[in-house]
Amino acid sequence: MKDENNPSSLIPHPSSLILMPLNLTILVSGSGTTLQNLIDVIARKELDAQINLVIGSRAGLAAEARAVAAKIRYEVVESKGQPIDVFSAKIWKHCDEVGTDLVVCAGWLALLKIDPKYHHKVINIHPALLPSFGGKGMYGRHVHEAVVNHGCKVTGCTVHFVDGEYDSGPIILQRACEVCEGDTPEQLAACVMEQERIALPEAIRLIQSGRIRVEGRRVLISRHPSPEPTHR
Description:
Layout: E1 8-11, E2 22-28, H1 33-43, E3 49-56, H2 63-69, E4 73-76, H3 84-97, E5 102-105, E6 122-126, H4 141-150, E7 154-161, E8 171-178, H5 185-209, E9 212-215, E10 218-221
Parallel strand pairs: 2-3, 2-5, 3-4, 5-6
Antiparallel strand pairs: 1-9, 6-7, 7-8, 9-10
Helix pairs in contact: 1-5, 4-5
């Protein structure tokens, strides 16, 4: 529940006192490995959620086959050649149609204009320890090459809220892994992906439980859930 007179913003879980499965919409721009991880985690009952919709930023993505195999609705909203307002509005319209509680950017590469109703309801996972190695053009192999070339000793992943700029929203959590002498970008990508598989479901659980409070750029995590959950 957000208090307009208080800079602190509590991120409530979207159900009543009894937690209900979280309705997720997943945004993809590539192969869908992160999407598949969430599908698998949910299937193993390690995350109390359901994916009602997957949206691809262009036609022909490999992620579509993963969504179809899991019998999840899949839509394409082309980002290229459309004004950001028009493109983003189409995304939120689809999200509204399926009653989305949380939007997850999973390898999503297009900039979004966040609808006010989805403020602090859109998260992204980035394959580096932000604010290092983020921003436009920093995705996939580009990130891991930059980490190697910079001589970093650790790398990792970051889950953060999306705020309308590339990789700049408040950080929810991070997980790190060592950069060993001689590591290639491909080896780092594999190591970081293992951390991503853990970090993203954990961030979703924290949001669902109502344990997150945003104060400016800081995300504070409490031990106990919000005493004032909201109804869906």
